[in-house]
Specification:
The protein is mostly helical and 66 residues long. Helices cover 73% and strands 0% of the residues.
Length: 66
């Protein structure tokens, strides 16, 4: 099964809103927010790790480190 992207969930919520399906609107809206949180949170975590490895290349988890 293909995973829905945040933009697809926003579209699904809009379609459900036109149809008057309140529960679907809410659930798709919540899922869209969660997808955004995970994507942006992951990007922030990766940026933090990249900065840590630039500051000290021998840090645990860095390429070429200990």
């Amino acid at each position: 099964m293909r995973r829905a992207r945040g933009s697809q969930q926003v579209v699904a919520a809009a379609v459900a809103a036109r149809a008057g399906a309140v529960v679907t609107v809410v659930s798709q809206g919540v899922m869209a927010v969660l997808v955004c949180v995970v994507v942006f949170g992951g990007a922030q975590l990766q940026a933090h790790e990249d900065q840590r490895c630039r500051d000290m290349a021998s840090a645990v988890g860095c390429e070429g480190g200990g």
